C-alpha cells in the first residue's frame, strides 16, 4: 500500500466520532507517574495470574485498574486490593499469582491498604524500606504467600498500622523490637512462618492490640512472658505449637481484658485445667488440644455462658463429660456448636447429652475414650448435629432410636463399641448422611432396606457377626 494512503487510513480511524471525544480524553488521563511505575513493576513481576485481573491493567490511568483505588482528593493510589480468595456473586474461588513481589511497590507512597493475601505463589521478600516509603499504611495483608526473608526493622515506622497479616509464609529471623512502636495496631497474625525467638518485650507496649496469633512458628516460647498477660486490650490469643511447657499459664488469670478466644493447643502443657477458667464468662473459643493435661473438666465450666467452640482433644483428661452439656448458655439451646473431647481418658455413662441446656451442637467428637453404658435417646434433641463420632468407646445396648430425628446428620461414626440389637428402621430418615461407620459392634438382623443405608459400602457394616442384607450377604433365616 502507498504510504500516504496508509497514513490517511490511520488518521481516519483515530479521529473520534462526535460524543466519543469526551470519553477519549478521560481515558487518556494519567495517574500519578510514580504510582503508575510502581504498579507496572508489580505487574511485570507476576508471570501468571489465574484471576486474569492484571490482564486489564493497560493504559496509563491506573486509578481505573481493577483492585486499585485512588484518593479522590490527591489522585494518589490509596489502596491496592488483589486478594487471591475471591467472592463473586456469592460464590468463592481461589486464584493465585505466580511471581515476585516487586520492591517497586514502595513507589506507591500514599498507600493506606495493601492486600495481596492468599495469592499462594507470590514470592520474594517484604521490601526493607517499607517503613520509610509507605508512611500512611493502615492495613498490611500478605497472608498465605511464599514470602521469605525477615520482617523488616523499618516496619516500626508505620505508626498508622492497624492490621498486620503475614501468616502462612516462610518469613524468618526475629520479630523486630521496633514493632512495639505500632501504637495503633489491633490485629497481628504471624502464624505459620519460620520466625524465631525471643519475643521482643517491646511488644508489651502494643496497647491497642486485641488479637495476637503467633502459632506454629519457631518461637519456642517455653514460658509465656508475663507482660503478655498484662496487655490492656488483648482478647484473642493464639499460641499453638510454640513449645510452651509446664502448668497452665497463671498469667491469664488476671488479664485486664476479658479473654474471648484462647488457643494453647499443640504445646507441652501438663497438670490440671484450672478451676478459674470458669471465671472467663465471655470466652467463646477454647482450644487446649494436643497437650498432656491430666484432670477432670472443671465443674466451673458451667459458667462459660458464651462458649461456642471447645476443643480438648488428645490430652489425658478423665471423669465424666456431662459438665459440657450443663453449661448454662446465654441463649435458649445454648451457644456451643463445636465440641471435640476425643482421644482422652473420659469414662462413665453419658446422662446429660440433650437433656442439659446445650442443644445446638453441630460437631460432636467423643471418639477414643472409655465411655460406657447406654447411649441416651436424648441425643435426638441435638437437631442441628451434622457430625457425631462416638467410635472407639465401650458403649453398650441398642443404637439410640431417636437419632433418627436428627435429619441434619451427615457423618455418623459408631464403630468399635459394643452396641447390640438391630439398626433402627428410623435411620432410613437420615437422608443427609454421607459417611457411616457401624463396624465392629455386636449388631444383628437385617440392615434396613433403602437409601441411604444400603448405599454404603460393606465396610460400613463389617465386623458385626449378626448383620445381613444389602450391602452384606442375604439373611439366612
Ligand atoms: C471521596 O469519595 C468518598 C467515597 O466515594 C466520598 O464520600 C467523599 O465525599 C469524596 N470526597 C471528595 C472530596 O470528593
Ligand atoms: C454476577 O451477577 C451479575 C448480575 O446478576 C452478572 O451481570 C455478572 O455477570 C455476574 N458475574 C459473574 C462473575 O458471574
Ligand atoms: C516459593 O519460592 C521458592 C523460591 O524462593 C520457589 O522455589 C518455589 O517454587 C515457590 N513455591 C511456590 C508454591 O510458588
Ligand atoms: C491467622 O492466620 C491463620 C491462617 O494462616 C488463620 O487460620 C488464623 O485464624 C488467623 N488468626 C487470627 C487470630 O485471625
Ligand atoms: C526450646 O527451648 C527449650 C528451653 O528453653 C530448650 O530446652 C529446647 O531445646 C528448645 N527447642 C528448640 C527446638 O530450640
Ligand atoms: C485446635 O488446635 C488444633 C491443633 O493446633 C487444631 O488442629 C484444631 O483445628 C483446633 N480446633 C479448632 C476448633 O479450631
Ligand atoms: C473467680 O471469680 C470469683 C468471683 O467472681 C472470685 O471469687 C474468685 O477468686 C475467682 N477465682 C480466681 C481463681 O480468680
Ligand atoms: C474424632 O477424633 C478422632 C481422634 O481425635 C479423629 O481420628 C476422628 O477423625 C475425629 N472424627 C471426626 C468425624 O472428625
Ligand atoms: C423423635 O421423633 C419421634 C417420632 O418420630 C417422637 O415420638 C419423639 O418424641 C422424638 N424424640 C425426640 C427426642 O425428639
UniProtKB/TrEMBL annotation:
Subcellular location: Membrane
Record membrane topology: Single-pass membrane protein
Any one cellular-component term (Gene Ontology): membrane
Keywords for this protein: Leucine-rich repeat, Membrane, Repeat, Signal, Transmembrane, Transmembrane helix
Pfam families for this protein: LRR_1, LRR_14, LRRNT_2
GO BP, one annotated term: anatomical structure morphogenesis
Keyword Hydrolase part of the UniProt annotation: no
Database matches in SUPFAM superfamilies: L domain-like
InterPro entries, per database record: Leu-rich_rpt, Leu-rich_rpt_typical-subtyp, LRR_dom_sf, LRR_N_plant-typ, LRR_R13L4/SHOC2-like, LRRC69/RLP
Coiled-coil intervals, chain numbering: none
Signal sequence region: 1-21
Domain of life of the organism encoding this protein: Eukaryota
Record domain Disease resistance R13L4/SHOC-2-like LRR: where: 103-237
Location of the Leucine-rich repeat-containing N-terminal plant-type domain: 33-71
Entry protein name: Leucine-rich repeat-containing N-terminal plant-type domain-containing protein
Taxonomic source organism: Protea cynaroides
Organism lineage string: Eukaryota, Viridiplantae, Streptophyta, Embryophyta, Tracheophyta
Amino acid at each position: 500500500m502507498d504510504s500516504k494512503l496508509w497514513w490517511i487510513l490511520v488518521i481516519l480511524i483515530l479521529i473520534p466520532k462526535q460524543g466519543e471525544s469526551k470519553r477519549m480524553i478521560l481515558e487518556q488521563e494519567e495517574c500519578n507517574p510514580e504510582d503508575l511505575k510502581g504498579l507496572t513493576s508489580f505487574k511485570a513481576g507476576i508471570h501468571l495470574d489465574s484471576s486474569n485481573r492484571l490482564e486489564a491493567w493497560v493504559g496509563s490511568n491506573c486509578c481505573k485498574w481493577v483492585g486499585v483505588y485512588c484518593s479522590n482528593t490527591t489522585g494518589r493510589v490509596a489502596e491496592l486490593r488483589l486478594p487471591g480468595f475471591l467472592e463473586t456473586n456469592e460464590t468463592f474461588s481461589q486464584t493465585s499469582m505466580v511471581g515476585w513481589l516487586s520492591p517497586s511497590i514502595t513507589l506507591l507512597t500514599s498507600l493506606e491498604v495493601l492486600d495481596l493475601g492468599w495469592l499462594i505463589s507470590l514470592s520474594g521478600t517484604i521490601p526493607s524500606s517499607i517503613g520509610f516509603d509507605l508512611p500512611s499504611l493502615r492495613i498490611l495483608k500478605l497472608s498465605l504467600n511464599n514470602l521469605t526473608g525477615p520482617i523488616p526493622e523499618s516496619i516500626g515506622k508505620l505508626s498508622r498500622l492497624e492490621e498486620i497479616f503475614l501468616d502462612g509464609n516462610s518469613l524468618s529471623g526475629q520479630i523486630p523490637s521496633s514493632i512495639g512502636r505500632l501504637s495503633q495496631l489491633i490485629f497481628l497474625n504471624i502464624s505459620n512462618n519460620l520466625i524465631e525467638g525471643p519475643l521482643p518485650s517491646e511488644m508489651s507496649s502494643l496497647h491497642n492490640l486485641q488479637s495476637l496469633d503467633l502459632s506454629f512458628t519457631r518461637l519456642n516460647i517455653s514460658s509465656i512472658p508475663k507482660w503478655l498477660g498484662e496487655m490492656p486490650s488483648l482478647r484473642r490469643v493464639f499460641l499453638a505449637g510454640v513449645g510452651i511447657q509446664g502448668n497452665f499459664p497463671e498469667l491469664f488469670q488476671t488479664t485486664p481484658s476479658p479473654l474471648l478466644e484462647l488457643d494453647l493447643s499443640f504445646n507441652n502443657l501438663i497438670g490440671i485445667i484450672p478451676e478459674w477458667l470458669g471465671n472467663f464468662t465471655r470466652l467463646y473459643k477454647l482450644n487446649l488440644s494436643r497437650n498432656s493435661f491430666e484432670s477432670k473438666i472443671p465443674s466451673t465450666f458451667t459458667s462459660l455462658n458464651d462458649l461456642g467452640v471447645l476443643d480438648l482433644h488428645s490430652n489425658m483428661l478423665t471423669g465424666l463429660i456431662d459438665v459440657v452439656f450443663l453449661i448454662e448458655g446465654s441463649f435458649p439451646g445454648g451457644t456451643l456448636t463445636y465440641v471435640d473431647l476425643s482421644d482422652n481418658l473420659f469414662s462413665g455413662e453419658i446422662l446429660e447429652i440433650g437433656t442439659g441446656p446445650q442443644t445446638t451442637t453441630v460437631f460432636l467428637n467423643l471418639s477414643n475414650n472409655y465411655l460406657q453404658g447406654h447411649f441416651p435417646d436424648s441425643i435426638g434433641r441435638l437437631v442441628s448435629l451434622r457430625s457425631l463420632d462416638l467410635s472407639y468407646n465401650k458403649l453398650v445396648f441398642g443404637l439410640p432410636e431417636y437419632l433418627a430425628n436428627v435429619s441434619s446428620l451427615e457423618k455418623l461414626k459408631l464403630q468399635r463399641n459394643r452396641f447390640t440389637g438391630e439398626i433402627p428402621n428410623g435411620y432410613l430418615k437420615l437422608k443427609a448422611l454421607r459417611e457411616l461407620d457401624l463396624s465392629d459392634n455386636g449388631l444383628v438382623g437385617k440392615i434396613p432396606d433403602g437409601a441411604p443405608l444400603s448405599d454404603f459400602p460393606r465396610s460400613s457394616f463389617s465386623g458385626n457377626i449378626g448383620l445381613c442384607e444389602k450391602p452384606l450377604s442375604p439373611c439366612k433365616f
